[in-house]
Structures are given as structure tokens and as C-alpha cells.
Amino acid sequence: MSHTTLRLALVQAASGLDPTENREALDRLAPGGHDLVVFPEAFARDFGEAGSDVSPYAEPLDGPFATELAGVAQARATTVVAGMFEQSTDPERPFNTLVVRGAAQASYRKVHLYDSFGYRESDRLMAGPIAPVVVEVGGWQVGLMTCYDLRFPEFTRRLVDAGAEVIVVPAAWVAGPRKVHHWRTLLTARAIENTVYVAAVGQPAPRYTGHSMVVDPLGEVVAEAGPGDEGEPVVVTAEVDRATLDSARVTNPSLANRRL
Known about the structure:
The protein has five helices and twelve strands. With 260 residues, it is of the alpha/beta class. α1 (19-29) packs parallel to α2.
């Protein structure tokens, strides 16, 4: 496998309230022919009404959802990322977890819970440990973060300091005034300030913002979806290229020039 490029597929699709249907959607929606396929946050089961209890839908990392994810990854000979609620030490507050299965295996428990814009995610979920999770996929170092983590630049920098060259951001970015502007601006800023690729996949409109996108290390948008809708999944594909990454870090050596 070539390490000079990494073929990405971002599956902008809505998860519903039936975990069985969401599991079945993995195989139906995951495309072949890519090195990394990424589904949104909370794909195993949507959050439901704001503030509702999601603990009955929490699963272990070897439960039905992660097992199906591994099967889909194996069938496609790829690596797949998707979000789920994972059982924690508190039966009423699971983790909001990204599961990675296939050629790479990992899990990342969301660190920054969405206590913002009128929401209080921490009432229903437990924050994960503050530790960067970076996995190797096709010779590339891929860092993981989830939705609200995007608003904390120091967290992305932690991932980059741990070697990340591509940042993957599954999300369920709630729709509302200025929210698409914030999403696009922050994704672009994280790419520029860290000279990394950023690949972000969100659940679609109307509840969420969609606009799944890949941004290159100089802030150019390589591919982007629109808001989408719940009934029509969209797959955004892009190829990240090491020559582009290396060139960006010569042009803009901000990581090397840091003084803090």
C-alpha cells in the first residue's frame, strides 16, 4: 500500500433511534475502495431529544455495534470509524466514544462534553481521559476528536504533538444561527494553524449542520458536502497527499517556529 496518499470517504448520514437499523446501515452505506471510512458521532444511536437518557443504549467495545463495524471493515479491507455510546463505570453516564476497527483498532472517548449553546451533555455522558489518540492507517498518523472538541485548539495541538498528520472529526454539530460558519471556520483554522489535513463528517440537516468536508494543510477545502437531509446520505471522498503536507510545512513552518 502506498504511503504517499490516503483515500478517505466521509459518510454524511443520519442515525436514528433504533440501534438495529443503524447497525444495518453500516454495511449498506460504507463504500469500498478507500483506506479510511468515517461515519458521524453517535451513529450507533442518535442522541434523541435534548437531555434525554442515552444510557440504555450504551454498549461495551466488543458489543453488537463495534462487532458489526469490524465486520464491515473486514469486508471492505479498510479501516472504519464510527461513534457510539460506551458503557462506563457510571451506569447512568456512558462515554461518547469513537470506535476504530479494521486495519487499525482503537477507541477514543470524547473529552470535551457539549455544555454549551443551551445543552448540557455532561448531565448524561462521562468525559473521557485527557489523552491524545492517534492511530496509523495506511502509513499515515490519524488523530481522533469528536464534535465539540473542535472548539479547543489546544486539544488538536496535543494530537499533532503526538504525531497526527490527519485529524478526523466525526460530529453531530447541532444546527442553529452561525453554526455552519463556526464549523467551517474552526475546521479550516485547525488545519492551517497545525499544517495538517482535517477530515470532518457530520450528521445532516435539519437537526444537524452536515457540511462534511476535507481541508488541506494550507486551509484549502478539498471536498465538501452541503447540509444534506436525513433521507439521503452523501459520501464525500478525497485523497490526502504527503507531498502537499510536506510542502505546506515548508511554506508555513508554524510548528517549527513555536515559542510557547
